[in-house]
Amino acid sequence: MKNNVSAPIFLASSILLLLQTLPGVKAGFSCDGSSFVSNSSYHKNRDSLFSTLSDKVITNGGFYNASIDGTRVLAFCRRDYERQGCIDCVQKSVQQIKTSCRNRVESFNCDSDPRDRVSCFVRTTNSSTYGQLELGPATIDPSGAAIDRATKNITLFRQEWDAMVDRTLEVATTDNSTAVLKYFGAVRAEFTEFPNVYMMMQCTPDLTSGACKKCLQESVNYFKEQFWGRQGGGICRPSCVFRWEIYEFYGAFANAIRVPAPPRALIPRAQVISVTRLKGGIIAIFVVPIVINVLVFIGLIKAYNRIKRSNRKIKEQQGESGGQSMLRFDFGMILIATDDFSSENKIGQGGFGSVYKGNLPGGQEIAVKRLKQGSGQGDIEFKNEVLLLTRLQHRNLVKLLGYCNEGDEEILVYEFVPNSSLDNFIFDEEKRLLLTWDMRFTIIEGVARGLLYLHEDSQLRIIHRDLKASNILLDADMNPKISDFGMARLFNMDQTRAVTRKLVGTLGYMAPEYVKHRRFSVKTDVYSFGVVLLEMITGQSNKNYFEALGLPAYAWKCWVAGEAASIIDHVLCRNSTNKIMRFIHIGLLCVQENVAKRPTMSLVIQWLGSDTISIPLPTAAAFTMRLPVELHGTNASNQLAEAGAGASSLNKLTITELSPR
């Protein structure tokens, strides 16, 4: 028996030693690629990035990817990291690379020692890896002794282990978490042969959910092929980390999402019990079904009562929403979810109120918009807005989950969109590097499709009136979602324009006919879209051109002078200039002063999706950065500063007069 047990241990140890000599799969670190000369530009750039790497990964939430002239460095700390632990781990990995991969372009060090307070990895390369699935190089750590096959039912263990893998994969690849380090799953389960088994999976946040799942599945398969039979272990790749143990390795399960233990494998116990227990098994054949039937009967009664109460509650909640599927939240639940609207949970500030991140009792993350008291929305207007948003369903619009109006409180509850707003990326010198041309194209097209839905494809015709970079949120895959409908106005489908007595919106994004004459239409949103498109091309905020009367005017000036290429963001210098110039052309068509000449969003989408469709030449762009008449006075400078910053809107109650076509 001892020989039988020792054989797997010896075999696994031999495989481990063999793998450590192979390229691509090693224990701890990997050095690949060509060599670089000491004091070369690559060497200096790498050391420069290394010098601030541990601090940068902390300030960026545990994941940092940066480059200097083709020298790229990536750092990653496991989600349960402690601040100092992450810093120490990254510095240790950097030192390991400097020592063991002294002059190699490609290096990868993963510190996965379970005794440490944190696991992390650091990678250097000379090629772009952001958003790409990277399965190699990989490091391995088959920890623990072999499972004693003489006393353990290895078949049953494997079925329970596979079920646990499925549960952990489901949790880790469901993006309902924070903007950074979003793909994470930690599961604790009780097995038949072990009191507790722990499993953790995590991917880098630049991946799609599908790519994350593939990386983790590859790691699981590799472990099963090479190291099955050991009591734990882990695999670390540049795109994901996988680990499991029969003990609670540090920190990973302190705040983990709890899921039920995997179901018991359907193996008759009669196959594994001894003959001496046969008598007890015969008794169980008669007793167990009776007990099960009684428990099922009791469970059915409880379930029926629970469903009955739930249906009654849903009917009460839908009573004021015309039967729409809209949840009315209790204010006490909102307080618990947001930790009493704590400043730590505040994620945004808008003209109508503040936005907070919250967590419902079931673990779902939400965004809670708390409207200011006296914001100008009465009870009727608030309910109308709720009903309006309930009827809007599109992948490029933020989804409204429910509302709360108790006493003086008026609250809207939205889906939580993890990657914050577009302005946090496009106007940030470092984060803008992450916005490749393909990603910018996806964002521009997504916003266009969201506006087309509002203008033409929904049951209603909606004019947003405050489209800007800060009102475009980015989901886990960097897909855009238009948000903040506090100023949106409803049109009947046979109406095209309206006049308002008060001005609302954000200076610099408002169309000239709206600023000067209070007239707005779908073309008002088209103008705002054009400004956002030009911001995406230039990587600069409209406020930066305030002295020059706005980005549209500056872009038009460069276009007329034949110098439009000069406004293209330097980050996009390696992309096709012709393609980007076509987008500048489309943007200028959207911001024309002549309303009639501006395209519809359906036409814009056609232009964006084709390089062959001819498009007309633009006419003069509008100059809309001048102050409207009623802003002159004692508060003019303050309102101008707010508008220029793009952080606040001119929120005033509007009285809309609809003009039939």
Number of E-state strands? 24
Alpha-beta content class = alpha+beta
Low-confidence stretches: 1-27, 254-282, 310-325, 491-501, 624-661
Computed CA radius of gyration, to the nearest angstrom? 30 Å
Coarse morphology: globular
Helix percent reads 25-40%
- As for the CATH topology of the largest domain, it is Transferase(Phosphotransferase), domain 1
What strand line-up does the widest sheet have? 1-7-10-11-9-8
The rounded distance between the terminal residues' Cα atoms is 90 Å
CATH architecture of the largest domain: Orthogonal Bundle
Largest sheet: 6 strands, mixed
Tally the structural domains: 5
Instruction: Determine the number of helices (DSSP H or I, runs of at least 4 residues).
Output: 16
User: Could you give me the name of the CATH homologous superfamily of the largest domain?
Assistant: Transferase(Phosphotransferase) domain 1
Describe this structure in words.
The protein has five domains: 2-141, Gnk2 domain, C-X8-C-X2-C motif (Killer Toxin P4, Chain A), CATH 3.30.430; 154-268, Gnk2 domain, C-X8-C-X2-C motif (Killer Toxin P4, Chain A), CATH 3.30.430.20; 275-318; 327-415, Phosphorylase Kinase, domain 1; 423-660, Transferase(Phosphotransferase) domain 1 (Transferase(Phosphotransferase), domain 1, Orthogonal Bundle), CATH 1.10.510.10. Strand 5 and strand 6 form a beta hairpin. It is 37% helix and 19% strand. With 661 residues, the chain is of the alpha+beta class. The model is unreliable at 1-27, 254-282, 310-325, 491-501 and 624-661 (pLDDT under 50). It has a six-stranded mixed beta sheet with strand order 1-7-10-11-9-8, covered by helices on one side. Strands 12-16-17-15-14-13 form a six-stranded mixed beta sheet, sandwiched between helices. The chain has helices at residues 2-19, 41-59, 83-100, 154-172, 209-227, 278-318, 331-337, 379-390, 423-426, 437-457, 512-517, 522-538, 551-560, 577-590, 601-608, 636-645, and strands spanning 25-26, 29-35, 63-68, 71-77, 104-111, 120-125, 138-141, 184-189, 197-203, 232-236, 240-245, 327-328, 346-350, 353-359, 365-371, 400-406, 409-415, 461-463, 472-474, 480-482, 489-491, 495-500, 519-521, 656-660. Residues 1-27 form the signal peptide. This is Protein kinase domain-containing protein. InterPro entries: GNK2, GNK2_sf, Kinase-like_dom_sf, Prot_kinase_dom, Protein_kinase_ATP_BS, Ser-Thr/Tyr_kinase_cat_dom, Ser/Thr_kinase_AS.
